[in-house]
Amino acid sequence: MLEVRDLRSGYGRIQILDGISLNVGAGEIVGVLGHNGMGKTTLLRTLIGEVRINSGQILLDGTDITNLSMHRRARAGIGYVPQGRDIYPQLTVLDNLKMGEIVRGGESAIDEMVSYFPVLENLLERRGGALSGGEQQILALARCLVGKPKLVLLDEPTEGIQPSIVDVIAEKLGELSKALNLTILLVEQDLNFIQELAERVLILQKGRVVAEMPPSQLDDPAIVDEYLGI
Ligand SMILES: Nc1ncnc2c1ncn2[C@@H]1O[C@H](COP(=O)(O)OP(=O)(O)O)[C@@H](O)[C@H]1O
Ligand SMILES: [Mg+2]
Q1: Ligand 1 pocket, 40 CB below 6 A?
Q2: Cys-Cys link to 10, which of 16, 18, 51, 109 (CB 3.0-4.6 A)?
Q3: Ligand 1 mean position to 33 CA, how many Å?
Q4: Atom in ligand 1 nearest the alpha carbon of residue 207
Q5: pTM for the complete prediction?
Q6: Does 22 map to a domain?
Q7: Is residue 69 classed exposed, middle or buried when 0-12, 13-18 and 19+ CB atoms within 10 A define those classes?
Q8: What's the whole-number average pLDDT of the chain?
């Protein structure tokens, strides 16, 4: 579904991604772990077209999207839930969900998504900014899925969220990925969350993928220490 070949990108003259190659198969959930500042967010923002590519290639479902605009990549089927959620605080929950539909014509998926996330049902008329952090994260996820993406890029969905909601999000993502056959690239720092969902884990260091492993290997303190220790 997603194939990234030797991708280099960055900000101005500073290169952050230093030759990243990775694959995510259709229906697969791949986790990306790494310390702060290693380039995880830059990777996702490069994939959606927000950070300029210096070299390399991105294929989505076999089509080269490397030179497409952000808008056209979204239309091609890339959904993105940014770090910090980034919902529209002044808009109601319903209007936030409607913004998610803009990338896509056809029948509305809002009712379907609200049925997957019943917590949103009673909040539809509430302003986004008045929701709790966890509710905002669920809204951001639902807003992304309303666009019916083929590939979903998630940037630290558990950051700053209370544990009970983290469990709900993990459970829903697991259900949804099966029900909708979603392909997910999941950036996370929460090892339990990533172990619960991901089928493979990539470790990012200084803009490169330095290791790939099954999530069970994260049970090994030596591995965690080697790649993620302080
Ligand atoms: N808009 C930007 N302009 C310049 N440098 C940036 C910008 N955003 C991030 N960086 C730098 O890029 C590097 C990688 O950041 P980021 O991708 O956010 O890492 P992570 O998500 O892994 O914490 C860091 O050194 C960060 O300071
Ligand atoms: Mg980040």
Answers
A1: yes
A2: 16
A3: 15
A4: 14
A5: 0.95
A6: yes
A7: exposed
A8: 94
